[in-house]
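Quick one: structure tokens for this chain, please?
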Amino acid sequence: MVDSLLLGVEGIKKTILHGGTSEIPKFTTGSKVTFHFRTMLCNDDRTVLDDSKKVGVPMEVVFGNMFKLDVWETLLRSMRIGEVSEFWCDIIHTGLYPMVAKSLRRIAVGKDPVDWHIHTCGMANMFAFHTLGYDDLDELQKEPQPLIFVLELLKVQQPSEYHRESWAMNDEERLKAVPVLHGQGNKLYKQGRFEEATNKYKEAILCIKNIQSKEKAWEAPWLKLEKMANTLTLNYCQCLLRMQEYYEVIEHTSDIINQHPGVMKAFYLRGKAHMEVWNEAEAKADFHRVLDLDPEKWLFYSQTPSYLVQRGKVMMVRFGE
């Protein structure tokens, strides 16, 4: 049964493959919708691009949360629980699908959908590297075309019916969650639960980066968020040091230093990481930079062995005895 009038949206045709139960659910801002999807090309073979059932995990979106492929909200609003429908969508609705599919494929194999510590957005990275990392998505990116989505609506939960993780929050809720996650991370760090602390810090950073992506770079609101993110990233690095992930510490602190060369703690933590991997010259250079930035707080003894001292307490020891 073709039912394009039900949607009332240009460039969409709907075919119900299996009827659902009861009335169409109430979809409000904050509703969490769980569904399976299959994406196909509009060719003779109906080539399948993605299929959540093959992955074994259904898709979840929160309505009103600015999901990149907003046409899915439009499609789901026409469905009943248990319904399976096929939607033909013109290219006016499918242009961003390659970017969305890249994120979904990374999640499916246990990777982060984005590299959170990189300071450029996903779109900028795409143009920088000229590829999404998947040949079929690259081809679709170069030549956008209509797509077919087969959706099966499994569940609709109202905001009060589920625990809202940070990805499901709006910007105001994310901003309120940041100090809570920061405090939880600090508590876990003091308890020696470093891996759990990193998860809290990372979730807080993701909240900030999501909000920051909507601000104009280097203007006051953006810089305020950047300072918050850097503080959390350095806490994250302190955990990594305790977990002996020294090269990752060097990577993250270098990102901060390249953008903000006056952040003393970034040099200090990078110096510690360099020392642990026996990069003596790099470590000494970082510790000297710490002294330049805050000479009243630090003392540095350059003899062998070398020491960095804070208020009489030896903080770092030694290079080559």
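The CA atoms of residues 66 and 170 lie 9 Å apart.
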